[in-house]
Amino acid sequence: xxxxxxxxxxxxxxxxxxENTLPINKSxxxxxxxxxxxxTSCFFIGLNxxxxxxxxxxxxxxxxxxxxxxxxxxxxxxxxxxxxxxxFYAQITFSSSPREMIDNLLSGPCLLLIDGYxxxxxxxxxxxxxxxxxxxxxxxxxxxxxxxxxxxxxxxCNLIRRRLRVPGLTxxxxxxxxxxxxxxxxxxxxxHCDRKLLDYVTQTLSTLETSALTMGIQSxxxxxxxxTFLHPMPSIFMTGRPDVACSYLAEGYLLLLVDxxxxxxxxxxxxxxxxxxxxxxxxxxxxxxxxxMVRLLCFLISLFLMPLFLLFCFNPEWLPNxxxxxxxxxxxxxxxxxxxxxxxxxxxLFKYASAHSANAFSGSxxxxxxxxxxxxxxxxxxxxxxxxxxxxxTLLASLGIVSVELSDAVKIYRLFLVLLTGFFPRxxxxxxxxxxxxxxxxxxxxxxxSYFWPLFPFHKKALTTLLFRYPTFKVQPEDEKLSNRK
Length: 486
Known about the structure:
The protein has 486 residues and is α+β, with helices and mostly antiparallel strands. The chain folds into three domains: 11-124, no CATH class; 137-269, no CATH class; 283-446, no CATH class. The chain is built from 17 helices and ten strands. It starts with 10 loop residues before the first helix and ends with a helix.
């Protein structure tokens, strides 16, 4: 059916229009009521479960009072003035476009069609079903805030605004997806962000062509940056913590908030964002700096420990004499390669099975499975103690990488290095290392920004702030310092 550009002035025609467009009387969750405002007939449409019933009851209770019934719309000077005088409980928008009204109805607000007017009321009484605010599982901290984003966009905006109480905090809303009409909000601070990047983000979102963001924020990321299998490194940083999101906003970054997704995308993105943790800032500066160094060491161990072990097993003469006891002696090269592959895939299987098992079983599964499978694998000659040790150390180091996306990318690179080292024992490791470096250097990012800032372009102050945990008073913006002195 072709939807007209404007509403009709006759209520019966408007009701027929909405009945032909929406599955009224077919879908049980669409609520409709015929009511009167004084002597004027009206038609109410809402979605059951997405409306705040208490506010709707207040509205209907007012409409049914004798004083309200005496104030007919026909005696009012205008519809906007009448609504201003009589409706107190909800935000109301006027619209003459049926398409706009339908899009709003499917997002949660209610509609009120009034006889004799080519304008309808969009009454914002939405109340989405949502889970409670809780700490994200992948970004837990021992000290600090325990709240996190939820699947409700308005809740996420409130969590940010609660922390940044400045007039310049803005949430610019856009709808993406011809089927889903998903709400996407661009969060930024006026006069404190990159205006060119903001304009580019706004233009890009307005021109995205997709039917639906089926996987929420992940679908949006893949639409913004089209990557291939050659680039496993993450290109957009995501966080589920409001305190982390607010810290980036205060530094001039932009956020993308997607309805139905409990994460915020941070733009622009650089590699060093994935090495940071909010836990650093809830510790004292010396402890926070030490944790960062340990985390960097975990990154290196996770990437290089197993490939280097395999390389030195194939070329033991490359090791100094005092380190040769770290690798097994008199072992077949093919056997050690098979052992390493078995442990790599076995530990991944063990990791994901433990992560996706029920909470009641995950702890016991990890302990019993680790002891039993490791011991049985050695007994059956599927591997040996050295390979299990280095594999376990690699797995432990990968768990020390705070970003799940970065940890998964490192795992892909490590497997690539292991395979090249196994097939080409002499030079495979170095060829793989060069290809990995090329892959990282060519990782696409949004907005044509540098993936290696502040290393390139070099910014000494920003780089030292990333590597070392400085006291708060030393990293405050200058304008904030001056404003606090007044």
